[in-house]
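Re: that chain you flagged

S.,

Sorry for the slow reply, it's been a week of failed gels. I finally had a moment to sit down with the sequence you sent. For the record, here it is as I used it:
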Amino acid sequence: MPKLASSGLVQGAGFLVACVLLWEAIVRLAGVREFLFPAPSTIVMEILNYPGFFARNALYTLLVTLVGFAIALSLGVALAIGIVYSRLLENTLYSLLVALNSIPKVALAPLFVIWLGTEMAPKIAIAVTIAIFAIVVDTVLGLRSVDPETLNMARAARANEWQILRKIRFPSALPSLFAGMKVAISFALVGALVGEFVAGSQGLGHAILLAQGMFDTPRVFASIVILGLMGTILFYLVDALERYMLPWHASHRGVRTAM
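Prediction finished late last night. Pasting the structure tokens below so you have them in one place:
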């Protein structure tokens, strides 16, 4: 493993462990009540005592997140290509996306419930709505960042627009696309949680609502911890995919050469 990556991982893990130990010490020494602020050990025991409950709800939230992310990625890339190649789409659809992004998604969630019911579909729709904007914006930026001289040379060589898109524009846009994907995967998780808050009978969001109604603070914290771990793992999976597909990119050269 490259030294820079391994040292950064060790430092991050060490800082996290120190924060958890400090949290545990403060709660124990100050005698904070469990229903106000549980200690990390209490949260861990909550997860260990009900592994099936948390696993079932976490898998449901994860499924909604991944499906929403996949749809947002596919649709976002297609929309970005349309915006780059069509002035009409740029003037209409792009403005619509900006306006839609400015609306709090919690306000849209009840509409999705009315239109799509209370099962998984409205949660996926909310995840797509939140995640798609980052993918569209970053992909449009990447597709337009190609050197104009490179495009002129390709057209002089009689390359058609499909060939230019496949061999020049899209490969050049991959770094920007992955930047958008890193943001979008976290947003998709937020969207899944919002959907479960508004209308859900499963998922970690629903578990948090039930626990909050019963003042079961350890279960609320346990759900939040699992969500944090889930979001972190998903982010670094996208980052690992980026490193695998784009080893030549400037952002990875220092990590790979520092042995």
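What I noticed first: The chain has two domains: 1-32, 37-249.

Talk soon,
D.
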